[in-house]
Specification:
Rossmann fold, 23 strands, binds adenosine-5'-triphosphate, 2 domains, binds magnesium ion, BirA Bifunctional Protein, domain 2, alpha+beta, five-stranded mixed beta sheet, 31% helix
């Protein structure tokens, strides 16, 4: 992408409405634009990152055995009357009438609809276990939308739903999602800690929230500090037997405020390891058994031929919220520092003297060579002064910069800079390209 032809509306001023750093940086870097309270347009740079986050979530869901489909954003109110949640959900639900005065709603979540789909097709235990997910926009009319995409009203969520014949098998489905979440967040460079959580309006008995620690987080959390640096288990696992791994992660104390028990915390965690901090909820998993399948009559015949309500769980990831969370975890005074895995571009190519024939030729060659070798390149071919180019590339957080100027070229060298560390290296163009190639 050539910057001169791109749409990157970077702001010089710090927007006064933004209270936290991720919101400020997303506005300044031209990633999002607020269209109404808690409702954002995704500008090209923001959309690139959103798609990459989404793709990691998709890959890890698939690895854990879940299958992607896509449900609509609009749902019939009658479906929610079947579960009893239409009245319960309250003002967070955006209710809509169509031209025939049919009551509809913009989905805040999809338990009812997936249960309806399941019961339409699945009759036998032989089709189980089954886990279906989608990545779709949700709407919740939050009382206080704030912090940019962290607490939006319209937001992108991955929600998966598992179906099993009995509790033991449902527990395995839960464990697969638990571990998939550890891997998902680790791939984005995040340290997410699973914590015992309240089940809220989704209901049920077994639930964990995945929390990344950040001073700007909206949740108060308590945990054993050892959990923060445990890292991810990695992809090569026995996906049918994860209980040991889950036990290891859940045996140490970790709870959100709603579930916190100070006496237990003090009894179980030595004083030096007691961590009480703010956190951002990036994922939430629930096992809720027959809560929806029973009222909605989603039943399957077991091996004995007897029909019983299917056991379900649901598993959410805040895809758009993650973008804010990643920035909260990874930035400096100059701007965003994207982890390689979610960066909008791999390399920012900076021409220090636009209009100089040698610089332009070298930049064009580098631009083409890197793209041919699988890299996404943002080529700053603008007329701006070097200082402005450096500042903008730092602000938008591209992981590598390739800097080409007349002085270096005369000596046969260019410079590469790693955004995260600021480390610079001078080397030949060919060596630089080899270094930066995929
Ligand atoms: P919160 O407690 O933050 O309001 P929640 O518990 O209501 O979230 P869930 O129903 O568990 O949310 O939704 C699954 C995930 O969707 C959450 O873990 C979070 O990452 C994300 N999410 C929920 N509400 C919002 C929102 N208003 N804006 C952005 N992401 C959200
Ligand atoms: Mg939640």
């Amino acid at each position: 992408m050539r910057l001169s032809r791109y749409f990157l509306p970077v702001l010089k001023e710090t927007p006064s409405e933004a209270q936290i750093v991720s919101h400020r940086l997303m506005l300044r870097a031209g990633m999002i634009r607020q269209e109404a309270a808690g409702i954002y347009a995704w500008l090209p740079l923001g959309l690139r990152v959103l798609k990459r986050i989404e793709q990691i979530v998709r890959e890890e869901m698939t690895r854990a055995g879940a299958i992607e489909l896509l449900m609509p954003t609009l749902q019939l109110a009658d479906l929610w009357r079947e579960s009893g949640r239409y009245e319960d959900y309250g003002q967070e639900m955006l209710r809509i009438l169509d031209r025939h005065e049919r009551e509809m709603l913009y989905g805040p979540t999809n338990e009812e609809m997936i249960t309806e789909i399941f019961r339409a097709y699945v009759r036998s235990y032989k089709s189980l276990p089954l886990n279906l997910f989608h990545i779709q926009w949700k709407f919740r009319d939050e009382q206080r939308p704030r912090f940019g995409v962290m607490r939006g009203r319209e937001f992108l969520m991955k929600d998966a739903y598992s179906f099993d014949l009995d509790e033991a098998s449902a527990r395995k489905a839960y464990n697969r999602m638990f571990v998939a979440y550890l891997n998902t967040f680790a791939r984005m460079g995040l340290k997410a800690v699973p914590m015992r959580a309240d089940t809220g309006p989704i209901g049920g008995d077994l639930s964990h929230e995945f929390i990344i620690l950040a001073d700007t987080g909206e949740s108060q959390v308590f945990c054993d500090a050892a959990l923060v640096d445990m890292g991810a288990p990695g992809p090569d696992l026995d996906w049918d037997d994860l209980q040991g791994l889950v036990d290891q992660r859940t045996s140490l104390y970790a709870a959100t405020e709603e579930m916190h028990d100070q006496a237990r915390f003090e009894a179980e965690v030595t004083e030096g390891a007691r961590l009480s901090a703010r956190g951002i909820e990036v994922g939430h998993i629930f096992y809720f058994g027959e809560k929806y399948s029973k009222p909605m009559k989603a039943v399957v015949a077991g091996p004995d031929g007897v029909e019983r309500p299917v056991h379900m769980g649901s598993y959410g990831v805040g895809v758009s919220r993650l973008m804010g969370g990643i920035i909260e975890a990874s930035h400096d005074d100059a701007g965003i520092i994207w982890p390689d895995s979610v960066a909008p571009f791999d390399v920012g190519l900076i021409n220090l003297r636009q209009g100089d024939a040698a610089c332009e030729a070298a930049c064009e060659a580098a631009y083409n060579a890197l793209q041919a070798r699988g890299r996404e390149v943002l080529y700053d071919d603008s007329d701006e002064r070097p200082g402005g180019k450096f500042a903008r590339m730092d602000l938008i957080g591209v992981p590598w910069q390739l800097i080409i100027g007349p002085k270096g070229l005369a000596e046969g060298v260019v410079e590469i800079k790693r955004r995260a560390t600021g480390e610079r290296q001078t080397l030949s163009l060919e060596a630089a390209l080899n270094r930066l190639a995929a």
